[in-house]
């Protein structure tokens, strides 16, 4: 597991989608990453801890929400992330694995990632969750094909649950309409997120050891994911 990149890494850039399910299907038809999927327990544990981190970010956003409508909407999105976490933890328990022990190796890197992407205010936090969770849920869904046949459909269904765009996009749009200077700041923030988010994705892969071959296979995958990120940004009227 390679997490040392957080120590010296500067924040990077990202790219979103308002139609993630369609994009996901198109990408899965292009490149099969089944042989790069890690072993079942590490995969489930890393995704489970990531979803827990998303839940924690969203619960803080709920507390800081300026209106009751925002609190109610974001609480439902936080509930989706927690449902994903619980579903993945349940799969770990089915394998007689202690979820806390399995997730522990991934906690330092993901906690650091959460710190890097938390944002300076409520709006940056919302955009960070929307972009990073969208990118990584799409990426993790690509690795599902490498899971055992009996498990893969359950994990795919868990990762399909996504109301981020439905709830978060209107909140961001309303904020930018009320404060025209906000959009330029969010555009810069959105672009800064992509690099670190890609590194989280790469840390989950089981590489073959042939660097050139691995990179050749992964290039179109990350091109698609970044294009999806750009569409999420475009949907908010932000320049990716």
Beta fraction of the residues?
under 5%
Task: Give the overall shape.
Answer: globular
Order of helices and strands: HHHHHHHHHHH
CATH topology: the name is Ferritin
Fold topology:
Elements: H1 5-8, H2 20-30, H3 40-64, H4 68-94, H5 99-103, H6 107-116, H7 122-143, H8 152-160, H9 164-178, H10 180-203, H11 211-235
Please give a structural write-up.
The chain has 240 residues and is mainly α. Helices cover 74% and strands 0% of the residues. The chain contains eleven helices and no strands. The chain has helices at 5-8, 20-30, 40-64, 68-94, 99-103, 107-116, 122-143, 152-160, 164-178, 180-203, 211-235. The two termini are 30 Å apart. Residues 1-28 have low confidence and may be disordered.
Summarize the structure.
By secondary structure, this protein is an all-alpha fold. The protein has a single domain (5-235), classed as Up-down Bundle (Ferritin), CATH 1.20.1260.10.
Structure characteristics:
Ferritin, mainly alpha
């Amino acid at each position: 597991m390679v997490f040392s990149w957080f120590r010296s890494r500067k924040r990077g850039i990202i790219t979103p989608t308002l139609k993630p399910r369609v994009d996901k299907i198109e990408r899965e038809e292009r490149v099969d990453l089944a042989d790069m999927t890690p072993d079942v327990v590490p995969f489930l544990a890393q995704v489970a801890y990531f979803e827990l981190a998303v839940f924690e970010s969203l619960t803080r956003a709920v507390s800081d929400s300026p209106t009751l409508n925002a609190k109610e909407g974001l609480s439902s999105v936080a509930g989706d992330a927690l449902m994903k976490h619980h579903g993945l933890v349940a799969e770990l328990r089915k394998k007689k694995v202690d979820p806390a022990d399995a997730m522990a190796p991934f906690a330092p890197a993901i906690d650091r990632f959460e710190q890097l992407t938390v944002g300076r205010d409520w709006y940056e936090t919302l955009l960070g969750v929307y972009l990073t969770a969208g990118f990584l849920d799409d990426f993790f869904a690509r690795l599902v094909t490498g899971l055992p046949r009996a498990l893969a459909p359950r994990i795919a269904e868990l990762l399909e649950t996504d109301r981020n765009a439905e709830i978060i996009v209107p909140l961001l749009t309303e904020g930018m309409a009320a404060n025209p200077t906000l959009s330029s700041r969010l555009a810069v923030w959105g672009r800064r997120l992509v690099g670190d988010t890609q590194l989280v994705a790469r840390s989950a892969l089981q590489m073959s050891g042939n660097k050139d071959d691995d990179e050749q296979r992964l290039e179109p995958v990350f091109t698609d994911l970044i294009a999806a990120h750009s569409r999420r940004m475009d949907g908010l009227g932000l320049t990716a």
